[in-house]
Amino acid sequence: MDMWSIMKRGFMYRPERDCVIFGEQRVTYREYEKRLNKLVNMLYGLGLHKGDRVSVLSENSMTAAEAMIGIEKGGMVWAPLNFRHVPAEHVYHLNNAGSRAVIMQQQFAEGIASVRGELETVEHLIVDGEGAGGMHSYEDLMGKASDKATAVAIDEDDPVALMYTSGTTGKAKGVLHTHKSFGALANFAAIELGIQDSDVVIYVAPINHGAGILLPPHLMMGVPNILIAHLDVDYILDVIQKEKVTTMWLAPTIIYFLLAYPNRANFDLSSLRSLPYSSAPIAVEKLKEALDTFGSVFAQAYGLVECPVISMLSRDDHVVGGSEEQTRRLGSAGREIIYTKVRVVDDGGNELPAGEMGEIIVNSPLVMKEYWRDPEATAQALRGGWLYTGDVGYLDDGGYLFIADRLKDMIITGGYNVYPKEVENVIFKHEAVFEAAVIGVPDETWGESVKAFVALKPGMQATEEEIIALCKDNLASYKKPKSVEFVDALPKNLAGKILKTELRAPYWEGRERQV
After folding, report:
1. Using CA atoms, how far apart are residues 339 and 185, in angstroms rounded to an integer?
2. What distances in angstroms separate CA 50 from CA 13, 73, 100, 182, one per listed residue?
3. Fewer CB within a 10 Å sphere, N or C end of the chain?
């Protein structure tokens, strides 16, 4: 079963209903299907084939949505780029993926043009705007392409998406998903979220990030999908009110913005019935405030790029004023979802009893096929039919999963992954830096913020502003340290390894969750 076989239900049953809405742009399911056919034929006309990787560099837009679904429909592999990254970061992703084409918004064309000579496999740069400097115009190419469907034989084990998540060495790893794993994901969402024909969904978070997993199941159900490019709270609330939005997938940060927004009471938000959230935990007190404000509309999803959803804390579990047990479970990541088994194991892979802390592993059809071109990392993560997540936690007697820490050296800030090694590598570019360590510290808005500890070489100087500016110039903005603390030396064990646990301890003391 390929992804188009799953999604085509909505196109068959609701051809005249709004399919995608972006600003003043609206297309029906019938119109959108023709656009998807044009995109497939356009790419094949450029000489691409089934299985080729096509990268997309765009904020939420009509083009981003067309590209994601059209690439999948044509049997090619959707390889999204993070629009917050700098061009040097795109070079690595494009070369590692072996992408043959890039579809991008006009605002990113200059950056990609600046590194074009470093791109090893990219043959076609397609711009949603002016096609200058040897780049193709997206609309010019689409205008020449047929809107008739091209039959492509796709097997469920064929690749459908290549999404990048950073590794602890600082180099990103490509996570390869198949039509089978993405198809299972679409079916899970339709069942667990209870998607209804009357729903209207809004995408505030980028669809090239976690929010994109909601698009196929909602297309399958034939409901309108509204894309938002920027976090303009007034505009978002106005759209919810006008379009009678029922569903919005959120990062906790956006929930915090909504709770703090003084004009919220001026809008009618009564249509909202389902607000799933993910990417980072929410403090229990904040969650109680959100439930008091919006009602019983929240559902939490825990997952990784390698397995987009592992467990869910359902709407029924989001209880304020319930028993002590119900209140405690508000701090959990819920229970394993349909099709999925979750276990907690010790260092030897042995299953641990309820209440004992260990590594979280998962068996699910939603699990990736492999790490792209990295058999060693694949073998480490996929063992005996289980994905070893690198997250540490425990299961209670009711099967609720509590996440306590990470084996992997990772920070999640505002829903984005930051790996300290990558930031540390940049900090070491400063000539005065002797050693550096980067950790995540609690942040009421972003979940965690990036903090750097730096020891300088004898007789040399550096400022916090210099370190932060250096990181900003070399990395996506969200990866730069929010603060820098200068120390005489970093704590180490007898083997000389920096003890980040000692650096983290004062900031996380007294907190049940250490992430």
Report:
1. 10
2. 28, 10, 12, 17
3. N
CATH among 3.40.50.11030, 2.115.10.20, 2.30.38.10, 3.40.710.10 for 291-406: 2.30.38.10
Residue 452 to residue 413: CA distance in whole angstroms: 14
How many CB atoms sit inside 10 A of residue 396's CB? 15
Cβ neighbours of residue 261 under 8 Å, at least 6 residues apart? 233, 237
Task: Write the CB contacts of 130 (distance below 8 Å, at least 6 apart in sequence).
Answer: 106, 109, 137
Per DSSP, 393 falls in state E
Residue in 159, 169, 121, 149 with CA at minimum distance from that of residue 36: 149
- Alpha carbon distance 14, 514 (integer Å): 46
* Residue numbers of the chain with a pLDDT score lower than 70: 166-170, 279-281, 283, 405, 493-497, 512-515
Q: What are the Cα distances from residue 183, in Å, to 226, 336, 470? A: 22, 18, 42
Which residues, listed in sequence order, are joined to residue 395 by a DSSP beta bridge?
401
Using only C-alpha atoms, the chain has a radius of gyration, in whole angstroms, of 23
In this prediction the pTM is 0.85
Q: Does domain 411-508 have CATH number 3.30.300.30?
A: yes
- Of 43, 312, 307, 36, nearest to 178 by C-alpha is 307
Residue 406, C-beta contacts closer than 8 angstroms, at least 6 positions apart: 390, 391, 392, 515
Residue 168 confidence (pLDDT): 41
Q: What's the rounded Cα separation, in Å, for the pair 504 and 56?
A: 37
Contact (CB, 8 A) for 490 and 497: no
Nearest to 481 by CA among 465, 492, 502: 465
Q: Which residues are bridge partners to 371 per DSSP?
A: 175
- Other beta carbons less than 10 A from residue 311's beta carbon: 24
Contact 369, 178 (CB under 8 A): yes
Could you give the 3-state DSSP secondary structure of residue 313? strand
Contact in structure between 156 and 1 (CB atoms under 8 Å): yes
The strand pairing partners of 172, in sequence order, are 166
282 contacts 252 by C-beta, under 8 angstroms: yes
CA 267 to CA 4: how far, in whole Å? 37
Amino acid residing at 139 = E
- Cβ neighbours, 10 Å, residue 351: 12
The span from the CA of 479 to the CA of 440, in Å, is 11
Handedness of CA 19, 257, 452, 464 (dihedral sign): positive
Is 50 in contact with 154 (CB distance < 8 Å)? Answer: yes
Pairing of strands 370-371, 172-178: antiparallel
Summarised one tens digit per residue, pLDDT across range 165-210 is 854 445 789 999 999 999 999 999 899 889 999 999 999 988 987 7
